[in-house]
Amino acid sequence: MKSGFVTLIGRPNVGKSSLVNSFFGRKVLIVSDKPQTTRNRIRCIYTDQEHQIIFIDTPGIHKPIHRLGEFMVKVAIQAVKGCDLILFVVDASKGFGEPEMEMCQLVRFSKTETFLVVNKIDLIDSYGEIAKSAQKKCQCFKKTFFTSVARNQGIQELFQAIKSSIPEGPMYFPEQMTTDRPLSFQVAELIREKVLLLTREEIPHCVAVIVDQVVEKENDLIYIAATIYVERQSQKGILIGKDGSMIKQIGTLSRMEIEPLVGRRVYLDLHVKVKKNWRDKDFIILNEIGMKDEIE
Asked: What is the structure's pLDDT at 62?
């Protein structure tokens, strides 16, 4: 059997999570059009008869302005250590700029085989020039791939190259396992995805979701209580909405995806609380959103 760890790196919103979903042929990671959707290092486990590939999705590497951002970048950097293959993902519409040059230093230092993935090629015609510029500036890419999740272009070619590149190894996780994250984390991420989908401006960046309770009830029902944290009272009002309309919509859309995940009917009890400047807090809040174990 061939098995290995494949880490995806890139600046925020280059499509790392969408690429992983395309390899699985279904959604295993939340996605949105908002930068910094991914806040944690998340392992997604693909298994077939001949391969087990552990894809490690990481937060986008960026210049942080909060404590949360600092830890997100640290998580992404740590994920490169010890992996078997790096996918260096670039947004074709943004090109290969200063953020990518900084990440090149990380790749060189790791001495890990690296593929350049020029993603979102449906947004631009001259994406080939980006690859030439990247190779000239970085000179650490073994292969280059051009992909578009929207058009399902180049995905299978990249996936086959990944399968060919990982080494012989054991099965690290049970065959049926698709993520090493607990159910509470997966549910919290699905709820946060709906907040990202339905809100704009500063709200997506200042939201954390904590699952407080998961209880099996009678009649094939699971009760899930979760809290959505924001930083200001005005943000709480937006998330609740007029007569509770926004929080109801968030709950309805979340439940539609949580129920297939747990295979049961779900009663989702959502609350919104204000925790001032939580993004600048240290381990207490970071532990609540599941990042403390990643940075110790």
From this structure: 53
